[in-house]
Amino acid sequence: MTGFAATAALALAGALALGTTPAAAHAPDPLARYHHQHLTWKSCVLGPDDDTGKALRKAGARCADVTVPLDYDDPDGRTVTVAVSRIKATDTAHRVGALLLNSGGPGGQTIGDPPWVRAAMKGVGKRYDVVGVDPRFVGRSTPMDCHWPTGSAIRGPGHDRAGFDRSTAFAGELARDCRKYEGDVLPYVTTRDTARDMDVIRAALGERRISYLGYSYGSYLGEVYATMFPQRTDRVVLDGVADPDRYGPRLLRGSERANLHALRDWAAWAAARDTTYGLGRDREAVLAVVDRVQAAAGRAPLRVGGYRVDDSVAPMVVFDGLSQDNDAAYGDFAAAVRDLRDAADGKPVDPSPWLADTLGFMLTGADSAYGSVQMAVLCGDVGAPRDPETYWRDVQRARARDPLFGPVTNNIGPCAFWDPPRERPTTIRDDLPALLVNATGDPRTVYEGARAVHRDWPSSRLVTLRGADQHAVFGVYGSDCADAAVNAYLATGRLPAADVTCAARPVPTP
C-alpha cells in the first residue's frame, strides 16, 4: 500500500471511530490492536542516571511503553515502542483531557517534561493528564544510533574552499554511517510517522481528542498532527513557531539576522560585566573578541582542554550560545568566549562547564543518538539539494553579508547524501485554530516565521514576547503575561479575542 493510500485508510478509520460514516461503520480498523492495547503503567525508573525519573516520581508520574508499527503501511509487520510518562489530572470533576508534549529537536526527549509543564500550568494543570512522549527512536523509546563521532551534524564550512570540501566529506560520511547502521529504519524516522504514533497514543489512552503543547520543532509536529488528524485535536499551543513553508534540512537559513541581533545584545550584557568576564568595556570591544577567536581558529585549531576547535566548530560555539535570554545562559556563554580568547592567545585552558559540554557534544560520539535522529527526521521529511556546488555558492553569498552566521546556516549537511523521502511533505491546513507563541528576537524559530504562520491561519492568535532574544517562552522565560495567555486558553478552550503582546522583563544591571 502506498503512503498516500495508508494515510487515506487511517483517515477513514478515524472518521468511522467518530461515527461520521454510518454506512461503513463495520469496516475493520487496520490499527485496532494498537488502538486498543493495554498500557502497563509503572514507576518511572529511567536508568542509572535517574534524575529525570526522580523528578517524575516526585511529581506522581507513571510511565508506560506504547507499541506502534514501524511501517504504517504494514501494521502487521515489525513494531517499535514509544515511551510515555503521565501525571494524571487531580481535578477530575473539571477534567479537560490529555495534553501531549513535545519539546523540540527533532530528537529531543520529552518524557521528563510533565513536572515542569504541570507547574507552569498552575491551577489549570490539575484538569489535564500531562503526557510526555519520547518520539520514536528518541530517548527511552526504541533507539536508533548511527554511531556518529558527534552529537550534531551541523558545522561551519571553514574560511575557504578546502574547509568546505572537508565539511562536504564529513556530511557524506555521516550519511553513509546512517545507511550502514540504521538503513532499515531510516525511511520511517519522519514527522508524519511520529504524528501517527501520537494518534495511537491518543487511542491507547482512551481519549477521543487530545490537546497539544509543542516547542520549536514540536510546533511543526503539532501542525502535521492537526492536519493529518483534524478531528482528534482539542487545544493546540505552538511555542517557537516553525513556518512549515521554510521547514526542512535547511531550516536555519534566514535566521542570520536574528542571531546577529542576539549576539549584539549578549555583547552589551557582557560589556556591562567587564569586571567579571574581562571581554571589553563596550559592545564593540566584546564583539571584536568574538571576531578574534574566529580568525585564530581559522589559522590553526585552538587547544581547549582535550579538544581542538577549528574554524568549522568555533562559529558553532557562538551559535549554540544564543538561544536563551537570561543571566545564567549569558554568563555561561561569556565564560566560554573568555576561554576561547585565552586559547587563541596560546594560554592553557581548562574549559568552563558549559563550553566543555558543548565541545563534548560536537566533538565526541557521546550524543550520537540525538544527532542521528535529528538529522534522520529532517532528511526523511523534506529532500535537500544534492549538488555540493549549490551549497558552496550559497555559502559564498551568505559570507559576504554575514561572515559569522551566514556560512553556518547555508552549509552542506548529510541530507545532501540521503535517500529521497518516502512521503511528500504535509501540506498544513490553513484553518488550524491554535495559540502561537514567539519572542521577537528568537534566533532559532524567527519571529517573521511566526507572523507568516499567523497570517496563513486566520483562526489562530499570536502571543508576542517583545524585546527578548528567547527561544521557547511558556514556562521557560518567566513572562507572567505570556504564561497567563496560554493558561487561559488551556482552561477555557477559547482563543484570545485579539493577539497578545507581552513585554520582556527589564535587563538587570550588575
Automatic annotation (TrEMBL):
<dbReference type="Pfam" id="PF08386">
    <property type="entry name" value="Abhydrolase_4"/>
</dbReference>
<dbReference type="InterPro" id="IPR013595">
    <property type="entry name" value="Pept_S33_TAP-like_C"/>
</dbReference>
<dbReference type="InterPro" id="IPR051601">
    <property type="entry name" value="Serine_prot/Carboxylest_S33"/>
</dbReference>
<dbReference type="InterPro" id="IPR029058">
    <property type="entry name" value="AB_hydrolase_fold"/>
</dbReference>
<dbReference type="GO" id="GO:0016787">
    <property type="term" value="F:hydrolase activity"/>
</dbReference>
<protein>
    <submittedName>
        <fullName>Alpha/beta hydrolase</fullName>
    </submittedName>
</protein>
<feature type="signal peptide">
    <location>
        <begin position="1"/>
        <end position="27"/>
    </location>
</feature>
<feature type="domain" description="Peptidase S33 tripeptidyl aminopeptidase-like C-terminal">
    <location>
        <begin position="403"/>
        <end position="502"/>
    </location>
</feature>
<keyword id="KW-0732">Signal</keyword>
<comment type="similarity">
    <text>Belongs to the peptidase S33 family.</text>
</comment>
<keyword id="KW-0378">Hydrolase</keyword>
